[in-house]
Design brief:
This protein is 12% helix and 35% strand. It has one helix and 21 strands. The chain has a six-stranded parallel sheet, with no helix packed on it. A hairpin with a 4-residue loop joins strand 20 and strand 21.
């Protein structure tokens, strides 16, 4: 098959995919080059959600994650460019309303078990309402982030963050209360 025909088929599949998303979520916006892996049935979006350029959403639904996964994103939330959300496995990732994240944020509900490359740990991630994650924040499996919290750029969150808190660092530590 010629490269031009492959290009046309690929372009058609991308168009169909974006059209399917727009029909299911008419108030949401999906920029080019987003990559959604797994069944769309595992994706639940609120109103006016933005998923920006080159983001990856892994919805599970494959044998390695027990054929489970779920990603919920609340109203008026924004997934910035180059973000990765692995919502694979039981529990998945639940994000509240008015969520804002900077580019390169990574959120994981699964991880490979050390010394067992064919085994995985699954723990849900829950992010509250009005949460802001600045650029390149990493959220580990099992973390809960309370409402109105902020995590500064480059932080690695390995433990829960209470509501109305500002955290930063590797690993992320308490800085102050949200004013």
């Amino acid at each position: 098959m010629s490269s031009f025909i492959r290009f046309l088929k690929s372009s058609w599949n991308v168009f169909r995919f974006h059209n399917t998303l727009k029909q299911k979520y008419p108030t949401c916006s999906f920029e080019d080059s987003i990559n959604i892996k797994g069944p769309l049935a595992n994706l639940i979006l609120g109103k006016n959600v933005q998923i920006q350029f080159n983001s990856v959403l892994h919805l599970g639904g494959m044998s390695w994650c027990q054929n489970k996964g779920k990603l919920e994103i609340g109203d008026h939330s924004c997934i910035s460019p180059h973000c990765v959300i692995y919502a694979a496995g039981p529990g998945g990732v639940i994000i509240g309303n008015h969520f804002d994240c900077g580019p390169g944020v990574k959120i994981f509900s699964s991880q490979t078990v050390k010394n067992h490359l064919d085994s995985y740990l699954f723990k849900s991630v829950v992010i509250g309402n009005n949460v802001t994650l600045y650029a390149n924040v990493i959220i580990s499996p099992g973390v809960k982030i309370g409402d109105n919290s902020i995590v500064y750029a480059g932080s690695v969150v390995t433990n829960d963050i209470p509501p109305n808190s500002v955290y930063a660092g590797v690993p992320a530590k308490y800085i102050k209360s949200v004013e």
